Every structure is written in structure tokens, then in C-alpha cells.
Q: What sequence folds into this?
């Protein structure tokens, strides 16, 4: 037996033990209470069924309907298509009560508003059979099957909205790409947009956190396939149907090997990666999209999601971009307005109710805690300013910090707010082996020398190296400076074997997206838990030798120094 099957079956066995010792009693109608609840559980009708995809794959579905409705009473439908909704565990968290997994879904909101809520397991997960393919043609087909089935039922109005966070937002974008009949709107928060850039930045593997032990990165992304295979092998519960229980543990060795071959491949040119790029697949989309992304998200990072946003076609699209982590904005963004806007979005586009969706087209949370309305992001007046950086050399050795690993460039203080809004990019002329890496980091440097990370990016060393950083919206206050660090790797962010080589930086040019017009926050909102943690954990104090020796005039707006 291979290591793949051993790992999968051991983890599955552990989950089975949890499931067997916690049997479920089901009563109908049942109350649903979830993080979206107002504290008063709502009763509902619940049943399960199976759908059949065109290739014969059997997809399990949980159906929740408002209590008291006749079987054929038509309602609009909200749908989540997911790999995480096993009756035994939500992702890998054991579920002691069994039944439909509604954790972190707006099920109660939907039921109270008169919607039917449907949860469909992706192929290979939960009670569905088949082979998962990480956003490939099989999973795209599952989304089409689920939407068109939900739209065609006698209890459906024929209009379906999709909603989810993370992978469950990814499936919503798969729906936009496929355009199934009946899909009326999609709300996608912290989605996977391009699974290659989710796992790798120009071939360098991201690290995911070790929650709940630590939020620092410890799990290399090229090993994420094993985690998904373990989730896909979560067994059913004793009270589940025979088909559910058989499907739950039906993972085959060839299926697992294909999955690991894709997810462990660092090569962006692999055809399987290119065909999963939803920026291209959803270009020109006109189905209403409500998109959300946190600039502080260390899971689905603020990268190509903005390419997808800018590529949308005409339509009543909405977006929330701001200072939060891997979540929607129900509780974790510091604002009271999210639920009202989300429900109105579905009411208008799925239920066809005569309502206006409140708020601006784009809601933006700045790093200084302000909230503002925009018609586009990056904003139309975000102008790119070139900056020449200091050159020199560093050693690609990783792990222990030291001045031999970095080159700093620090601006003169700004005489008024200088607002970074967009994606900073860098072009470097380097000498060194391709096994080495080059990282660019931007910092907000206070007069005291305390420096807070703004954004970063990485690429393998090449003669002409181009680095795209993660997106941000960050006002640098008057008196602060911009710090730019060139280094080899950030060890708790990326997985990289040190090359033990010297890298020369012969030229370095940074392009900064800065707002031309000053912004005055005009929306209500506070700060998130992720924002508070970032201010504490993503800071360093620059030593005097750096502050004294790395200062240079960058020719930026509001910079008080002179060349």
C-alpha cells in the first residue's frame, strides 16, 4: 500500500472513530442555529436526495426548506456546492450531532427570508462518489448539475443564487464560468480564483498556517493535496444511508495519485493549471457577482482575485475589499452593514423582489481603520510611480536573520498622507543561481523606527526578475516613511530550500500605485481581529544602522527630502 493510501486511511479511521461514538438523533422539523443566527433557531423541513451528473457521478444533496411550506410551494434557492460538508465533520472538525452541516453558512438568514437552501457535496466528498479534481472539469460539471437540478425542481422558482467562502466561493466562480441555466447571482468571499497562484507564487510554494496551534505558516502548499484527500475520505455516520456511507470512503488509488500529481506541481505552464484559471474563464461575466476579499488573508491571498474583478463584464456587481482575514464579513470585518447588503443582493437578483441593494459598488476598508466608497478598485486615480532602489548583494541562506540576507531602501518622511492603493510590482536585475529566490517587502516606517509590513512578493532569481506583490489599500501617515526590503525568503510565508549562494542586485526598480486624490472615509465601520493581530505580529523595529544608512530620496509625492 502506498504512502498516499496509508495517510488517507489512517485519517479516515480516526474520523470514523469520532463518528461512531457520537450517533445522531434526527427530528423533523429541526431548528437550525449557526453563526448567522440572531439567537432564535428557525425550524425547517429537511430531506436528502441524490443528483446524477452527466458522467454518472452521484452527488449527495441536503435540502432545507422553511417550515410549513407545501411540497410544491415555489421558492427561490440559495445553493452551496462544497467539499467540506460531510455529516461527520465540517472540514476536519468533528460534528457531534450529524445531519446537514450548516456551519458558517447563511442558512438561517435564507430560511427566514423565504428561500430554500441546498447544500451539494462535490464529487468525492461527503456523500458523493467520484473523483475530485481540484476545480477541474469534473467539479465544474458538478456545479452545473447542482444549479440546473435546483432550478428545475417543482418547489423552485427556477432562480438560484450561490454563496460561499474559500473553496465554497470557488465553486460559485466555477458557476460563473459555466453559466448553467438558472444561475441568477453569485456571492463569493475569499475565493480561490486561480488554484496555481493559491498554492504557488511564481513556482515558490506558499506556507499555510498551523491553526489552532499557530497562525504562522508551517504547512507547505505543495502538500495540501494530502489534506484534501483526507477530507475526501471522511466516512459517513451509522445513521447515513448505505449509499452515503459507501461513497464517503470510495477514494481510489488512481484518483488520489492524479490529485497529488496536480497539486504538487510547481510548474505554472502545466495545462491542468491553465484550464483552471478562472480569471480567463469568467472574463466578461454579466451574472451579478458579490465578491469579497481581505487584504490580510493568509489563505486565499489578495492576488489574482483583483484581476478577476477587473475582468467582469457589465452588470450589477458588488465588492468588499478590506482589512480582514479568511472570511466573509458577517462578524469578522468590523462593520454592521454586510448582512443587509448580502440579503438585498439575493432578494434583488434571485428572488426578483423590488429592493435596492444598499451601499456603493465597492466598499473599501483602509488599513488605518477608515471605510470608504469606490466605483472601482484599484481606483481610477491610482497612478504608478517608479522608484529606483538601493543595490548590493545578499546571501540566499534562509532561517536565521541577519544583515547579509537583506538590502533596505527607506524614503524620506512624508509631509502628508501618501495612500498606496493597488498592486506594487518590482523589476530586478540579478546575478545568482535559479535555485535562489528574491523577495520584495514594503513597510510603513514610523518616526520611532517601528516598521509594519504592508505587502510582499517573491520570485526565483533570474537575470531579469519580476515580482508582483499582494494587493493593499494603505495610507502612510504624515511623518512616516516607506521602507523597502530585498531579501531571499520569508521563512514562515514560503517554503524554500536555501541555495547557500550569493545573489547580486545590479538594478532594482519598484512601481508603487498611489492615489492622486486624497480620500476622506465616508462609510461606517471599525477594525477586525485580523487587523489588530497584523499590527502586533507583522512589525519589526529597524536598527539605527538601517535607519541611518538606508535612507534615500525616492521622488515620491509628499516626500519631504530632496535629491
A:
Amino acid at each position: 500500500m502506498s504512502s498516499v493510501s496509508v495517510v488517507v486511511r489512517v485519517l479516515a479511521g480516526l474520523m470514523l472513530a469520532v463518528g461512531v461514538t457520537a450517533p445522531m438523533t434526527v427530528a423533523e422539523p429541526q431548528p437550525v442555529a449557526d453563526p448567522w443566527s440572531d439567537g432564535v433557531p428557525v425550524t425547517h423541513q429537511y430531506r436528502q436526495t441524490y443528483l446524477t451528473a452527466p458522467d454518472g457521478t452521484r452527488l449527495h444533496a441536503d435540502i432545507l426548506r422553511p417550515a410549513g411550506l407545501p411540497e410544491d410551494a415555489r421558492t427561490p434557492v440559495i445553493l452551496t456546492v462544497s467539499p467540506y460538508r460531510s455529516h461527520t465533520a465540517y472540514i476536519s472538525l468533528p460534528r457531534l450531532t450529524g445531519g446537514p452541516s450548516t456551519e458558517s453558512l447563511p442558512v438561517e438568514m435564507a430560511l427566514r427570508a423565504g428561500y430554500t437552501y441546498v447544500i451539494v457535496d462535490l464529487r468525492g466528498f461527503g456523500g458523493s462518489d467520484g473523483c475530485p479534481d481540484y476545480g477541474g472539469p469534473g467539479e465544474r460539471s458538478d456545479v452545473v448539475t447542482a444549479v440546473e437540478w435546483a432550478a428545475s425542481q417543482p418547489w423552485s422558482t427556477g432562480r438560484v443564487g450561490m454563496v460561499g467562502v474559500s473553496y465554497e466561493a470557488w465553486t460559485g466562480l466555477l458557476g460563473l464560468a459555466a453559466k448553467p441555466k438558472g444561475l441568477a447571482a453569485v456571492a463569493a468571499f475569499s475565493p480561490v480564483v486561480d488554484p496555481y497562484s493559491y498554492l504557488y507564487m511564481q513556482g515558490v510554494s506558499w506556507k499555510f498556517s498551523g491553526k489552532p496551534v499557530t497562525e504562522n505558516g508551517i504547512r507547505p502548499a505543495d502538500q495540501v493535496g494530502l489534506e484534501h484527500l483526507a477530507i475526501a475520505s471522511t466516512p459517513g455516520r451509522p445513521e447515513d444511508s448505505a449509499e452515503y456511507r459507501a461513497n464517503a470512503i470510495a477514494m481510489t488509488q488512481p484518483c488520489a495519485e492524479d490529485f497529488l500529481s496536480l497539486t504538487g506541481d510547481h510548474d505554472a505552464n502545466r495545462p491542468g493549471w491553465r484550464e483552471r484559471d478562472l480569471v480567463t474563464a469568467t472574463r466578461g461575466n454579466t451574472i451579478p457577482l458579490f465578491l469579497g476579499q481581505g487584504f490580510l488573508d493568509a489563505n486565499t491571498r489578495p492576488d489574482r482575485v483583483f484581476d478577476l474583478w477587473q475582468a467582469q463584464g457589465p452588470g450589477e456587481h458588488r465588492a468588499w475589499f478590506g482589512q480582514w482575514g479568511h472570511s466573509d464579513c458577517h462578524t469578522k470585518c468590523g462593520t454592521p452593514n454586510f448582512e443587509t447588503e448580502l440579503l438585498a443582493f439575493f432578494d434583488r437578483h434571485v428572488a426578483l423582489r423590488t429592493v435596492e441593494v444598499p451601499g456603493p459598488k465597492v466598499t473599501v476598508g483602509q488599513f488605518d481603520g477608515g471605510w470608504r466608497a469606490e466605483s472601482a478598485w484599484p481606483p481610477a486615480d491610482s497612478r504608478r510611480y517608479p522608484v529606483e532602489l538601493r543595490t548590493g548583494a545578499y546571501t540566499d541562506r534562509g532561517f536565521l536573520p541577519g544583515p547579509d540576507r537583506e538590502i533596505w531602501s527607506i524614503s524620506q518622511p512624508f509631509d502628508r498622507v501618501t495612500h498606496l492603493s493597488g498592486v506594487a510590482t518590482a523589476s530586478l536585475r540579478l546575478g545568482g543561481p535559479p535555485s535562489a529566490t528574491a523577495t520584495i517587502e514594503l513597510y510603513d516606517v514610523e518616526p520611532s523606527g517601528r516598521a509594519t509590513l504592508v505587502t510582499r512578493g517573491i520570485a526565483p532569481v533570474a537575470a531579469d526578475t519580476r515580482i508582483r506583490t499582494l494587493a493593499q489599500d494603505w495610507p502612510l501617515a504624515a511623518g512616516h516613511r516607506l521602507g523597502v526590503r530585498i531579501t531571499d525568503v520569508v521563512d514562515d510565508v514560503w517554503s524554500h530550500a536555501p541555495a547557500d549562494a550569493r545573489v547580486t542586485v545590479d538594478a532594482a526598480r519598484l512601481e508603487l500605485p498611489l492615489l492622486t486624490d486624497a480620500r476622506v472615509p465616508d462609510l461606517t465601520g471599525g477594525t477586525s481581529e485580523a487587523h489588530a493581530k497584523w499590527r502586533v505580529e507583522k512589525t519589526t523595529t529597524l536598527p539605527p544602522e538601517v535607519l541611518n544608512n538606508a535612507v534615500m530620496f525616492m521622488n515620491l509625492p509628499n516626500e519631504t527630502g530632496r535629491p
Remarks:
- DSSP finds 14 helices and 29 strands in the chain.
- The longest strand covers residues 501-515.
